[in-house]
């Protein structure tokens, strides 16, 4: 998906309860409430995040005409606003609503839906070799990462081997302050404080209430965790929360013992909490972190109000943030990735896709879902859905680049991301081109010992729910730097204890150790 939008774990990342069920949903050409009849033998119903794309009417017609001719059915999706997608999507699954497929992820409700049996296994469809285009464009390594109790439950949507959550900065300001290339955490912090000192009209770093979950604990790095910049070797487990709250033993792959512990016991974490608190007090961060949504933060960066914000190695940095060059004379952006060793780093990766297509267990049309996944794995079909009508919405530059001609934006990460099929925008900044190319290579990563481990929450689901509530109440303010570290961490620890932390840790260790033993015996 090549235009400004919210990929990967980007748009919600909160563990909010099922509240605020908004009315901003829409169906392709229909309103939300008119879609209640569900799917049929010639209509596939899917859930997608965001607003209806500009110009979708014409593109929908072209897509459905081609689909009808090729496969005998059409697509009909419910677009649900970013603000409400997490809550509404979960409600649709738990209420038994009739639809066929949805965007799911570990930063949404994937673990919960796997534990509750809400998803349909896909093993048979992968095994029947009836989807050659899908098999050719989504690697077996990526597919295997969504294996739960011996079954595959998702089609990973990937345009990289593993995406890294990093930053985008104003490179023109880095040059202005004599910093040049930001490569180490010291460089990055010096940049933030230089902005604060010299450009008082700018907020050095814009952070939203979703990516606040990425500031502290490594997955494999925390944005403001200097220790993880030096040693990006661990993925924390995120049981019941959208932040990694459990650190696993880094030697687990060889010892066979997971020895999970709460995040505050891991190296560099408490130091990071104090650093973020200082950033908040020094005016390095926006004061509305816990209320700011990712769209607003990105919009303000584009207007020149922030000097840095979160940017991933997913190929969307230039298109998402490049507008600042039009808003601010002389502005230029650069991708910053939190590895002190740069492209020589070999960070841990689970290869679990940030975004997945899953099949509702209540769907009677799983075969259609898989046929559609195979269909969008053909380049001309992928390009039509992803970029729109060629000559009207986009112009090809060779086989791998494109030029945008319209405002059409489709959430391809929720339907048709494929490493080998994605085009990059003409004018992609050099730093992004370097890192995006790097992130596509599986050889640049070290396989985490828990690569396809999914925690079955069923035995401790009440405790998990209480931990999530405690994290939202006490953890997120710590991760945003809005509360005193000593008192805030004490309150969080007490709340975790009352929520049954020890019981969850015991269950997590039992399952994780069993996973390690099974993985060892399979080698």
UniProtKB/TrEMBL annotation:
Q: What is one Pfam family matched by this protein?
A: SBP_bac_1
User: Keyword Signal, does the record have it?
Assistant: yes
Q: Which domain of life is it from?
A: Bacteria
Q: Which SUPFAM superfamilies match?
A: Periplasmic binding protein-like II
| Keywords, comma-separated and alphabetical | Signal
Signal among keywords? yes
Which InterPro entries does the record match to this protein? Bact_solute-bd_prot1, DUF3502, SBP, TAT_signal
Domain named DUF3502: residues = 449-517
Q: How far does the signal peptide extend, from start to end residue?
A: 1-29
Give the stretches traversing the membrane. Answer: none
Q: What is this protein called?
A: Putative aldouronate transport system substrate-binding protein
């Amino acid at each position: 998906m090549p235009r400004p939008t919210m990929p990967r774990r980007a748009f919600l990342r909160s563990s909010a309860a099922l509240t605020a069920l908004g009315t901003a949903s829409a169906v392709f050409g229909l309103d939300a409430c008119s879609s209640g009849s569900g799917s049929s033998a010639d209509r596939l119903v899917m859930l997608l995040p965001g607003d209806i794309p500009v110009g979708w009417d014409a593109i929908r017609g072209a897509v459905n005409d081609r689909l009808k001719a090729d496969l005998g059915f059409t697509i009909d999706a419910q677009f649900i606003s970013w603000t409400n997608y997490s809550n509404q999507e979960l409600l649709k699954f738990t209420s038994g609503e009739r639809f066929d497929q949805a965007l799911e992820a570990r930063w949404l409700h994937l673990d919960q839906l796997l534990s509750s049996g809400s998803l349909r296994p896909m093993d048979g469809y992968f095994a029947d070799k009836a989807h050659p285009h899908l098999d050719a464009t989504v690697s077996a390594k990526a597919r295997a990462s969504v294996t739960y109790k011996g079954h595959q439950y998702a089609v990973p949507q990937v345009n990289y081997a593993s995406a890294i959550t990093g930053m985008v900065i104003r490179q023109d300001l880095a040059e202005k302050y004599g910093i040049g290339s930001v490569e180490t955490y010291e460089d990055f912090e010096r940049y933030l404080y230089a902005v604060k000192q010299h450009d008082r009209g700018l907020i050095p770093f814009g952070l939203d209430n979703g990516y606040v979950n990425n500031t502290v604990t490594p997955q494999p790095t925390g944005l403001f965790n200097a220790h993880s910049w030096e040693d990006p070797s661990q993925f924390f487990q995120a049981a019941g929360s959208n932040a990694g709250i459990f650190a696993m033993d880094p030697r687990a792959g060889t010892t066979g013992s997971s020895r999970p512990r709460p995040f505050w016991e891991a190296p560099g974490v408490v130091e990071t909490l104090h650093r973020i608190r200082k950033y908040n007090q020094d005016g390095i961060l926006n004061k509305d972190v816990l209320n700011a949504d990712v769209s607003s933060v990105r919009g303000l960066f584009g207007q020149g109000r922030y000097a840095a914000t979160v940017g991933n190695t997913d190929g969307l940095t230039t298109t998402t943030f490049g507008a600042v060059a039009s808003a601010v004379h002389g502005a230029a952006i650069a991708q910053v990735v939190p590895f002190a060793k740069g492209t020589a780093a070999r960070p841990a990766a689970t290869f679990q896709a940030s975004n997945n297509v899953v099949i509702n267990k209540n769907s009677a049309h799983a075969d259609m879902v898989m046929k559609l996944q195979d269909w969008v794995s053909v380049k001309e079909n992928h390009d039509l859905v992803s970029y729109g009508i060629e000559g009207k919405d986009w112009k090809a530059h060779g086989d791998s680049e494109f030029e945008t001609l319209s405002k059409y934006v489709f959430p391809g990460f929720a339907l048709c991301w494929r490493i080998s099929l994605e085009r990059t925008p003409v004018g992609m900044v050099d730093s992004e081109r370097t890192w995006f190319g790097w992130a596509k290579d599986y050889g640049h990563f070290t396989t985490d010992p828990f690569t396809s481990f999914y925690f079955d929450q069923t035995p401790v689901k009440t405790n998990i729910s209480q931990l999530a509530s405690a994290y939202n109440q006490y953890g997120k303010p710590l991760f945003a730097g809005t509360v005193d570290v000593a008192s805030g961490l004490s309150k969080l620890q007490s709340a975790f204890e009352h929520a049954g932390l020890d019981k969850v840790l015991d269950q997590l260790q039992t399952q994780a150790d069993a996973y390690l033993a099974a993985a060892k015996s399979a080698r």
